Amino acid sequence: MGTVDTLMSGMAGTVDLSGVALGCSFYWPAFMFLAGLAYGIAPTTSHFFARKDYYQMHLCRFNAVIIMLVAGLLVTFLLALSPLLFTLINTDEKMTHVATGYIYAVSVSLTCTAIFNLYIAYAQSLSVTQPSLVVGLIQIILDIPLNYIFIFGKFGIPALGGIGCGVTSCLINIICCIGLVIYVHKKHAVNKYKVLKPTRKLNYVCMRQYLKLSLPLGLSRTMEVAFFSLGALILSPFGPIVVASHSITLNVSGLIFTIPLCLSMTATIRTAYAMGHRNFDQALASLKAVTIINIVFFLIYFNLVLFLRIPIASLYTADPLVLELAKGLMLLNCIYMLPDCIQCVFSGVLQGFKDSKTIFVSSLVTYWLVGLPTAYILSWGVFFKRLEGYGIWLGFIAAILGAAIIYGCRIYYLFRYRKLPPLLLQSFHENNTQ
């Protein structure tokens, strides 16, 4: 959907493309915070599923729904206030108009997005992955025609330009959330693990365990995506050409990132299931399998981007200035992709261990204490020649390489000494006591 939005907003013009990119720099951190918070259900449910503790599994889901509803409403309010920050930066007025309208539109559906991500993660934790595929296909089928209607103004609806992407995303998020909730509660493959005791009640232990795991994951994903989103904000004073070329490169990278992200989710579920039995050998086998698959896919998309970067960029825009800059940025993206795919999968393994503290600390250090200062200094030329978009991507590479190294060292330690992180040990103890 992000790729379609970028392509179709680019058809409306460079200003609309840049405005959507700027709006996304606020929307995606909010979205990923809720997604990270929701995905805490996956390792938790997988642990209970491995131990056949279906009561705790259902109880945790209900309490997670309550947490996600509250979080969704809170994040919606904060996102709706974010356009006030545009008054503090010197940037193109038309571009900020598009970004503001886009943010207001997508913020309406954030609570639905929170519940949607929770139910997707819950189904995946039971190894039921078909809903992800079906919903993804529905989203794409709806995205293209609705974008066409709202961006270019069809069937009596005024042309909204880039703002139309936000309206489309809002409608699709609401529709898919309602459909997915109905599916999970009705589908036998997901809802067949019945329990006799009532599970729709607030439980302090469940809420505390869930928040201790998921809150660091949500904050980590927010810090990660906010770091990347700030690239557009840092570059916005350089004008729509630089922002658009950066947006194209980031969108291509984000589209490719879905491959290691899916492998990361698989690694989380399989690792969590293995650790539900405290089976390090099974967890290690899953790690080896997913790493091999990850490297094979990397070799494929690395060569595709390296040799087809000009035709790929041409799909987004016909502006020769944007194309020329995007061509160079995609070379840096090729370097960036290797540590990115490694850290993503390793992060999934750590989530399976419920080691969210390591992920949080790593995100704070690598993205905000290393990557962001490096990106700003190089792009604005604080000590050197101003590199603009190239400086941002060099900062990205530095941050993601640091994350890959930290995660790799932590995983080696856990498997080498067969250590259980404190949160995993605590959850075992509390659940047994309960």
Rg, Å, rounded:
22 Å
Q: Residue share in helices?
A: over 70%
Indicate the proportion of strand residues: under 5%
Described by strand count, sense and barrel closure, the largest sheet is: none
* Classification by helices and strands: mainly alpha
Mean pLDDT: 86
Name the shape in a single word.
Answer: globular
* End-to-end distance: 43 Å
Number of domains: 1
Helix count, DSSP H or I runs of 4 or more residues: 16
- Give the ordered list of helices and strands: HHHHHHHHHHHHHHHH
Strand count: 0
Uncertain parts? none
Keywords for this entry:
globular; 0% strand; mainly alpha; 434 residues
Describe this structure in words.
By secondary structure, this protein is mostly helical. The longest helix has 37 residues, at 240-276. The protein is globular and about 60 Å long. The protein has helices spanning 2-12, 14-39, 41-50, 54-81, 93-107, 110-125, 130-152, 163-186, 188-191, 204-235, 240-276, 280-314, 320-352, 356-380, 389-417, 422-433. The protein has one domain (2-433). Helix 1 packs antiparallel against helix 2 (14-39) and helix 4 (54-81) runs parallel beside helix 10. The protein contains 16 helices and no strands. It is 83% helix and 0% strand.
